[in-house]
Amino acid sequence: MKSKQRITAVEQHPLAGSSFISLMKLFLWNGGVDREYLPQALSAATASFLTIPLKIFENVKFSQKIAELEIELPPIFILGHPRSGTTYFQYLMSRDPNLGYLENWQAMRGSEIFLSSPELAKRWADSNYPRKRISDEVMMYANSPAEEEFPLANACPYSFYTWFYFPNNMRKIFQKFVLFEGVDDRIKTEWKRAYIKNLKRITLAVNGKRLILKNPINTARIKILLEMFPDAKFIHLYRNPYSIYASTNTLYKKLVRVLGFQTINEAELEENIIFIYKQMMQKFLVDKNSLPPENLIEIKYEDFIGNEIEYLKQVYAQFNLPSFEQAEAEFKKYIQSQANYETNKYTLDEETIKKITEQWRFTIEKWQYDVPDELTVKAAP
């Protein structure tokens, strides 16, 4: 997959905000960088190196506070395979002023300095926002909610999102750092330490509010999340698998073009999407049985759209969240602001649809989906 679009300013690459040691490990573990991407990789590494003093300052100033902090209110984790509507759900719930979340300006270049140098981190973010999300027409602002998997990828080399930069190892990264297959307990312990530190930093930034976290990759991490947060709450959104495939395929190809340091064959990427969805959802369907029924809510995306307030009432009632009436007006205001949003249109060929049906039959049948009307079916060549 050749690069046709790169980030307009290489210093804005997400890895520019990473730990320099972690970045060096990523280059070493993932087979290096393809020649055509060396300038972008060098720029990201330079930015990472130059911000070492700022990261040291933050560590000195806040390491003790982070170590002593207890996350008293169990987080709410929004789960669902990418492109299942999780972003919309988080954007909506984040309108509740009693909930805290990671913001875009904190998640990228400022991920390890936003507590001690917030104004600097915000200035670095200014050139990126506002803008439309790469996957669709959703507007992103500097203070919009972000996924904690991005700062995790900057803090340590054990994040699934590192595959955006090293796509040739996509499947291996998923198996090691999402399923934790073939890794020893040391790696799992280090991952948990980095993840908890990440959430403590966010908790400090939001003054101890309960966190509302959207991370699609956590759909396959329920058991390890429960080891850290036994009383965590989980909201799982699911959507038509045919739409999921078409949208994910489009998104991932864009992300690799923009962020990747390696070239990957499109057919290999498509096979990886099939494989990862299957592995992720099979693990979720098993591991969700570890949850007390009162701590899990599952929502069909197609039913949620148009009935958001009713579903939010259910979430607040089941999880005993205290502030629905206080936030309801803000929920309705945000829903109204999205009234004219139109989802993307996709085309799949008959061979791909057959492959999805065969490989993902377990979710297609469980949730009773058919090929959606809005999906254009193209005859195989």
From TrEMBL:
InterPro entries, per database record: P-loop_NTPase, Stf3_sulfotransferase
Entry keyword set: Transferase
Organism: Hassallia byssoidea VB512170
GO molecular function: transferase activity
Designated name of the protein: Sulfotransferase
The keyword Metal-binding appears for this protein: no
Name of one Pfam family that matches: Sulfotransfer_3
Keyword Transferase on entry: yes
